[in-house]
From TrEMBL:
Protein name per Swiss-Prot or TrEMBL: MarR family transcriptional regulator
Database matches in SMART domains: HTH_MARR
Coiled coil: none
PROSITE patterns hit by this protein: HTH_MARR_1 (PS01117), HTH_MARR_2 (PS50995)
SUPFAM superfamilies cross-referenced by the UniProt entry: Winged helix' DNA-binding domain
Lyase keyword on record: no
GO MF terms held by the record: DNA binding; DNA-binding transcription factor activity
Length: 122
């Protein structure tokens, strides 16, 4: 994925791609929720958020119910970047699954979702 991003002129690393993808698909969330969803520790997440915020792709906003907390959300530039990255994501996923027929792709997705749920429950 990272190679595809680079060849498309998108100067982001894979982890940064994942962060933008989560925010684009799920919406604003706390830094700790976001860190869990992309499997980063707090320090690594802070560094990534600082870099992405510096590029104008996301912002930290006060949480609506907890004034001690912040919500991380995409900026308009972050949303535009996600839309630019979406074809890269689709291309890599298609290439990775090209040997599978549609039924096998669906089975693989089901298996992986179940494995991920089991791991999250641990």
């Amino acid at each position: 994925m990272e190679a595809e991003l680079q060849s498309s002129g998108i100067g982001l690393r894979f982890t940064q791609f994942l962060i933008l993808k989560r925010l684009a698909l799920i919406g604003p969330m706390s830094a700790s929720e976001l860190a869990r969803s992309v499997e980063l520790d707090g320090g690594a997440m802070t560094r990534q958020l600082d870099q992405l915020e510096g590029k104008g792709l996301l912002r930290r906003q006060p949480h609506e119910q907890d004034r001690r907390a912040l919500r991380i959300e995409l900026t308009d530039a972050g949303q535009a970047m996600w839309e630019q990255m979406t074809p890269c994501n689709e291309y890599v996923l298609d290439a990775a699954q090209k040997a599978l027929d549609p039924t096998e792709r669906e089975q693989l997705r089901d298996y992986l979702e179940r494995v991920l749920l089991a791991l999250r429950d641990m």
